[in-house]
Amino acid sequence: MPIVRIEMLAGRSLAQKRELTRVITDAVCNIAQARPEDTLVLIDEYSVENWGQKGSLYLDQEDDDED
């Protein structure tokens, strides 16, 4: 059973997540010869308060970019 885990910042629409799940499932099935019913896609979303990059929280980086 293939399991694909996606971690990203929150903010995508339900339609975007549906399409992402569909496209990833199609790719996994085509390449790994898996069945769609055996392919699991998990989407974990994080707020900007819980995402760090370049040594600081993403929320603080947005503030720095505006300066």
Quick take:
With 67 residues, this protein is α+β, with helices and mostly antiparallel strands. Helices cover 42% and strands 27% of the residues.
Largest sheet, spatial ordering of strands: 1-2
Termini, distance in Å? 47 Å
Q: What is CATH's topology name? A: Macrophage Migration Inhibitory Factor
Enumerate how many helices there are, as a single number. Answer: 2
Count of distinct structural domains: 1
In total, how many beta strands?
4
Morphology? elongated
Radius of gyration, Cα only, in angstroms?
Answer: 16 Å
The CATH architecture classification is 2-Layer Sandwich
Low-pLDDT runs of 5+ residues are: none
Largest sheet: 2 strands, parallel
Task: Note down, in words, how this protein is organized.
The protein has helices at 14-32, 58-66; strands at residues 3-9, 40-46, 52-53, 56-57. It has 67 residues and is of the alpha+beta class. The mean pLDDT is 92. The chain has a two-stranded parallel ribbon with strand order 1-2. A two-stranded antiparallel ribbon has the order 3-4. The radius of gyration is 16 Å and the shape is elongated. The protein has one domain: Macrophage Migration Inhibitory Factor, CATH 3.30.429.10. The chain starts with a strand and ends with a helix. Helices cover 42% and strands 27% of the residues.
Topology:
Elements: E1 3-9, H1 14-32, E2 40-46, E3 52-53, E4 56-57, H2 58-66
Parallel strand pairs: 1-2
Antiparallel strand pairs: 3-4
Which features does this protein show?
alpha+beta, Macrophage Migration Inhibitory Factor, two-stranded antiparallel sheet, 2 helices, 27% strand
